[in-house]
Specification:
Blueprint lengths: L1 H20 L4 H33 L1 H12 L2 E8 L4 E8 L4 E6 L3 E8 L3 E4 L4 E4 L3 E5 L12 E5 L1 H8 L5 H10 L1
Antiparallel strand pairs: 1-2, 1-8, 2-3, 4-7, 5-6
Length: 179
């Protein structure tokens, strides 16, 4: 058994010596080194690209940054009734530190008043309720602050805030991003 191991080592050594003693010119050596380097660089690019894609998909910070850049610092929540009809929209402009409520119902001759809408005053980071918002709509809409019969459309964390004013994560994250 020992003889076979020694014999295999001698054969391997002979093969390596034969390969090394082969007459290679400088161009063949350079080409081999270039080829191996190219494989290494391509492998590295593929590796880092796959890591970058995973980060892009799972990173909350990156998603928040991209969302902020896409909206130019303006986030809004559209409030609809249970029949999917627009009533009003709450808009937060983080660049100008302003929040506003706009009528979003179909224009008409019926007066509607929406009041006690939970909003976040982004100038001083406090929770408040809005003053009455008067809108002229196509029909009468009922707004109940309990949010039971409302459909909210917008950024998920902002919707969570509208449902429960204690959850200010959205505003904290955006403010941290701006700092």
């Amino acid at each position: 058994m020992d003889n076979s191991i020694i014999e295999n080592l001698k054969n391997t050594e002979d093969n390596i010596l034969e390969l090394l003693t082969k007459n290679w010119n400088i161009y063949e050596i350079a080409l081999n080194i270039l080829f191996v380097s190219l494989l290494f660089v391509i492998g590295n690019l593929i590796y880092w690209d796959s890591i970058n894609k995973k980060i892009k998909e799972t990173s909350r910070c990156r998603r928040q940054k991209e969302l902020y850049n896409k909206t130019a610092g303006i986030f809004s929540v559209n409030i609809k009734n249970k029949n999917n009809e627009n009533m009003f929209k709450v808009e937060y402009d983080f660049n100008n530190k302003k929040q506003k409520i706009d009528c979003n119902c179909s224009e008409g001759k019926v007066g509607n008043t929406f009041d006690k809408i939970p909003i976040r005053n982004i100038q001083n980071n406090t929770n408040e309720y809005s003053k009455p918002v008067n809108c002229m709509c196509d029909k009468e809409y009922k707004y109940d602050n309990s949010n039971k019969d409302l459909i909210l459309e917008g950024e998920p964390e902002l919707i969570r805030y509208m449902n429960d004013q204690e959850k200010t994560d959205f505003f904290d994250n955006v403010n941290n991003y701006l700092l």
